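Protein 1 of 2
SEQ + STRUCT:
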Amino acid sequence: MQGEDYMNFAEAKGLKIRRMFLRYAVRNAILPQITQLVLFMGQLVTGAMLVEIVFGYPGMGSLLLQAVDYLDYSTIYGIVFVLILAVAVSRPCLSAP
């Protein structure tokens, strides 16, 4: 990260090293990690559904499969909404204070 334009600008502003590290470097370095976490959460949920369906465990995955079989759109919408909400909540807020 050293030598990047935003780091040079922060240094030119006269910020302390600790503030430059936390405010500029960490925030830019953590974005790919957060993206990977959210993608992993999606894979985790779909993997849990697969395990439920294959081994016959009752859960949201088997309920979703049953709702698709019976064309129960309201249940499908509800389960998909809960899954989207779970993945979205797993992403922490990165906005500046």
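Protein 2 of 2
SEQ + STRUCT:
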Amino acid sequence: MVSESPTFSPLYRQIKSLILQGLESGEWRPGEAIPSEAELATRFNVSQGTVRKAIDEMAAGNLLVRKQGKGTFVASHADPRAFFRFLRLVPIAGGVEQSTSLPLECWRAKAGPEAARVLQLKLADPIIIVRRLLKFSAKPVVVDEIYLPGEVFTGLSLEVLKDWTDSLYSLFETRFGVRMIRAEERIRAVAADRGSAELLGVVEGSPLLSVERVSFTYGDRPVEWRRGLYSTADHYYLNDLG
């Protein structure tokens, strides 16, 4: 990390950028505490108020987590709260449901034009494609097809996916050092084809939500392209705009 004091405005944004450099380089890993505001203020030769404003913005963006009486920590997908940040399905009947991931396939391929464009790869670069079924209360609700840069996720296999019991993003973070920071989604209504209908246990032609997601890590680098089909017979998609 650079330890020089930034010289142009806004100052707190420059401090935020320096802290982000530390996160991206792995100086502070997911789940670990970062230095105190006083320590960071000394390190960057700025006031604690400037550091606090930078940390406040990063906490609002789910990059850092403040814990009362303990300090400020790097956000992690291992935190149960992170699960509901990226999966917005809520049971119509109310309450909270934990999902179970059932990996179906995992294979290596070469990036076609669309995957190369979305993941900012070169044509024919190595990619990994994962298909999995997501169940809620033992009922299939989501079928996903996930495209990943092959060089980033070297070693990912169907066996690794089946052995992992936590969330997929937690696996990416823990095993491959890739933390999803934000995602962009496109949602539209589609009719279930024969294959998705069989997997989701619905009638062919039933209405489904098609959710296409691109997830980004530090540096706004796309590292996942996901296309999912959601059955909303017992669930709805919740988006909190507050």
